[in-house]
Design a protein that fits this description.
By secondary structure, the protein is an alpha/beta fold. It is built from six helices and seven strands. The protein has a single domain, classed as Endonuclease, Chain A. This is DUF7931 domain-containing protein.
């Protein structure tokens, strides 16, 4: 990922291009950067909300910061299997329980149009994604056309998803 303070990593990504990044470390750093830059919307698709990429205190903090900055904030997370998240615990699951009107996690049953990438979108402008069958991810902080395509696909799948009872916190 580009670091403006380090000339060896400052690639100055031109608008409309994607920068290869390592998974999961740089991928997570890109997610944090997108969350910090977001004005209103975050969209995440990951079949199991992989711990290596998404269970980060810094990412949860950046998303909580977005919630504090914007009353119109909307964070949506789409998964297809919640077992690992429930069994191991997950910072984004905890955040969704603390901020249920802002951070929503829904489950998508098997569907022929499931994405072949895990990804995070910021305001339908910025994007970080990794093909499920690849080792490398890609960061496109200002690739509006590509991000808009991912956003449209995400929203269509979101409309077919449902709340997962396994994610509710049981209080006794």
């Amino acid at each position: 990922m580009s670091d403006p303070d380090n000339p060896d990593t400052n690639h100055n990504i031109p608008a409309g291009s994607s920068e290869p990044v390592s998974y999961p470390v740089e991928f997570t750093e890109c997610c944090i950067a997108l969350a910090k830059a977001a004005q209103r919307k975050i969209r995440i698709y990951s079949p199991t909300l992989e711990h290596a990429a998404f269970d980060s205190q810094d990412l949860a903090g950046a998303l909580a910061g977005l919630a504090r900055r914007s009353r119109a904030c909307d964070i949506r997370i789409l998964i297809s299997d919640s077992r690992a998240m429930v069994n191991r615990g997950h910072r984004l699951l905890s955040l969704s329980r603390r901020l249920p009107s802002i951070v929503n996690i829904q489950k998508l049953a098997e569907h022929p149009e499931l994405p072949t990438d895990i990804f995070m979108l910021s305001d339908s402008i910025g994007l970080v994604y990794k093909p499920l069958d690849a080792d490398q991810a890609f960061y496109a902080p200002e690739q509006r056309a590509k991000a808009q395509g991912y956003a449209e696909r995400f929203d269509a799948l979101w409309n077919r998803s449902q709340a997962d009872n396994e994610l509710r916190e049981l209080r006794i």
